[in-house]
Specification:
By secondary structure, the protein is α/β, with parallel strands linked by helices. The chain is built from eleven helices and 14 strands. The strands form two sheets. A seven-stranded mixed beta sheet has the order 2-3-1-4-7-6-5. Strands 10-9-8-11-12-14-13 form a seven-stranded mixed beta sheet, covered by helices on one side. Helix 2 (43-52) packs across helix 8 (237-250) and helix 6 (177-186) packs across helix 7 (204-214). The N and C termini lie far apart (53 Å).
Length: 378
């Protein structure tokens, strides 16, 4: 059987996502707006993709792509999907609708008609009608409508995939896990060089880096029923356990090169350590409190990756310009031979760093446009 899937992400990181999907062994079929369409040929590969993918926001299993020019066509196409074999009538469901290029449909009319067609399917087969639940449904059905064609799918990832299951509260500006992973993919980080985040906050970058370098599945700590595919009738619990066990056994036991993390706030260093413990990578990280401007390079050369601070406090302390200027000066003094990658706001005064980036990669963090600046420090 072929499983047709679509992974979503911000438009800016689509290429990186497509490369990752391919690296994980799937066949990429096409790219769409904020989406990569691909296929896998076994249920095992389907499960592996869900637990290993680092840069996707969601994964959907495509059930049908069809013409649906009008209400009647859509209703009949949706009703003919074998919903009763996909989920039990005891499961609650919701329909999310996305409309582009259509005068026929609005998101509300599309989701209403799709929901009614699904309910009609159960009634026709003399089964109870599954309840709808807008807030916390067991099953999320997605309909995309574009140019008279509907793509009907199940959101098998469940909660958004940046929720790895290790995050703790306590930092005001944590980086999204999927963005941290995207940076590391852009930098082609595979653990074959030391890595250092000197402004680590809650430690997202170094935790994602450790998992990547170990070949550890980033979503392995999601709790039971954390993926929506676990609520479907075709769920194979035995195979799912086997996949998880194989992935745990397949991960490396040691890192070839060290990973360091520091922050000038001791509380954040403690938070990073506790978060790393939840992600079970604490023993691979060296975390310590330090003001960046008094750090020395922890080894001769390596990769520095950090998302730079911004905000009111720095403004009050003399402004971002002078903070960024000092960063550039300290890099020149203490980090010769290092590759440095900083994530900064696109409209921040990053030019004050005073070094010419070898590369600038536009990305988004949440909805904020950001730049990944990559420097070689000579
Ligand atoms: C945007 S946050 C980093 C967030 C982090 N990537 C995460 O996922 O939680 C920037 C961090 O830089 C730290 N910071 C600010 N000035 C610093 C300095 N001079 N030296 C070291 N850390 C500093 C702040 O304490 C803050 O935790």
């Amino acid at each position: 059987m072929t499983w047709k899937l679509v992974a979503t992400c911000p438009e800016e990181s689509k290429l990186i996502l497509a490369q990752e999907v391919e690296k994980l062994g799937a066949v990429v079929e096409k790219q769409g707006y904020r989406a990569v369409y691909f296929s896998v040929s076994t249920l095992e590969a389907f499960y592996r993709m869900h637990v290993q993918i680092t840069t996707a926001s969601h994964l959907f299993w495509i059930l049908k792509e069809c013409a649906a020019k009008n209400d009647r066509m859509l209703f009949s196409q949706v009703q003919r999907i074998k919903w009763r074999e996909l989920f039990a009538p005891t499961r609650s469901f919701r329909v999310d609708a996305h409309v582009s290029d259509s005068t026929e449909w609005t998101p509300v009319s599309l989701s209403t008609r799709t929901r009614q067609a699904i309910q009609e399917h159960f009634t026709f087969h003399q089964l109870p009608v599954p309840p709808t639940d807008v807030e916390e449904p067991d099953v999320i059905i997605s309909v995309w409508m574009q140019k008279g064609r509907a793509t009907i799918s199940l959101r098998t990832s469940g909660e958004t995939l940046h929720k790895r299951g290790y995050r703790l509260p306590g930092h005001t500006a944590p980086l999204k896990e999927t963005v941290a992973a995207t940076l590391l993919h852009v930098l082609q980080f595979d653990g074959s060089t030391p890595l250092y985040d000197p402004m680590c906050g809650s430690g997202t970058i170094v935790i994602e880096a450790a998992m990547m370098a170990l070949g550890k599945a980033c979503l392995i700590h999601r709790k039971k029923d954390g993926f929506a595919f676990e609520k479907l009738l075709n769920f194979d619990r035995h195979l799912w356990r086997q996949v998880q066990e194989d992935l745990r056994e397949g991960k490396k036991q040691e890192l070839p090169y060290p990973i360091y993390a520091s922050d000038k706030e001791e509380d954040f260093v403690e938070l990073a350590k506790k978060t790393a413990l939840r992600a079970r990578v604490e023993r691979y990280l060296t975390c310590f409190p330090a003001d960046f401007f008094s750090t020395t390079a922890p080894c001769e050369s390596g990769l520095m990756v950090s998302n730079l601070p911004y905000g009111d406090r720095l403004q009050a302390e003399g402004g971002l310009e002078s903070f960024y200027e000092k960063i550039g000066d300290h890099l020149k003094k203490a980090y010769k031979g290092w590759k440095v990658a900083f994530l900064v706001g696109a409209d921040s005064p990053w030019k004050s760093i005073g070094l010419k980036p070898q590369k600038k990669v536009p990305l988004v963090n949440g909805s904020i446009p950001v730049l990944l600046l990559i420097y070689d420090i000579f």
